[in-house]
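User: quick one, fold this
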Amino acid sequence: MLTQVRLQDGTWATFDTQVTQASARLPWRLLLTLAILLAAVLLLSYVAVRWVTRPLNVLASAADELGRDINRPRLPESGPLEVSRAARAFNTMQARLVRFIDERTRLLTAMSHDLKTPITRMRLRTELLENDSLRENFENDLMEMETMVSQTLEFMRGLTHREPEQPVDVMGLLESLRADNEAMRRTVTIDGRVTRPFLAVPQLLKRCISNLVDNATVYGQRADIRVEEGASELTIRVRDHGPGIPDSELEAVFEPFFRLEGSRSRETGGTGLGLSIARSIARAHDGDVRLRNHEDGGLEAILTLPWRRATGT
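Assistant:
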């Protein structure tokens, strides 16, 4: 850069300034250094945030799994003070829940066992009744009591002692249910197909679908099963050909021991636990069961189950 300045005596002073090549490259080096520092700060911040929030993610996952398996492994009580205290509190809560459920289950088991003796005595005494109509009424009441005790026990303990999950051949399971119902002279049809196995507890999944099929055949003449294999979930629809139920009662029938008047009453032999058990099993597999009145008549139970991967895969 050339600069000229006129002095007082009329002469000119010339200043010739040149920027060295190293100085000219300095801004680019500075920008590159700042960019590297910024990237390093962002990377370290990301690692630090992940390290801090990881215990929270572990705790959230454990809370989600607790709803499906009350006997899941305990959380490790290590790490920073706040994290270890939270893990210890979670483990304590889980232990208390396990004890609470076990105590109630043992109590109900003892009650059901003790009730068998007086029920048996009453059965024997019923045989001595001369009035046929009265004897039949007593026998029906005793059979209902026995059924309610056994099904209540299954409802309380069915989801607390779970077998390991394994791939289930859904079509094979449905065909087995159809054969069982045909042996009881019930009409069950199957439409659709599933090409891949579903990860579940086999006995629980069978019981869930069986309860829906029993509900349809007992209260609605027959059960039409439709299977839909979606990308994210498996859907099994069980439709009957009965009168349906009021829309206002579609959710209430999932309450334990809830019965509707008319065809869906105690006279049909139900205890009001079938749908409750089916929904509990579905939700234990991250799914759900809902009911709707079909547009062509009858009641339709819709079982939705998301596709899941085995733990650790």
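User: anything notable?
Assistant: The chain has a mean pLDDT of 80.
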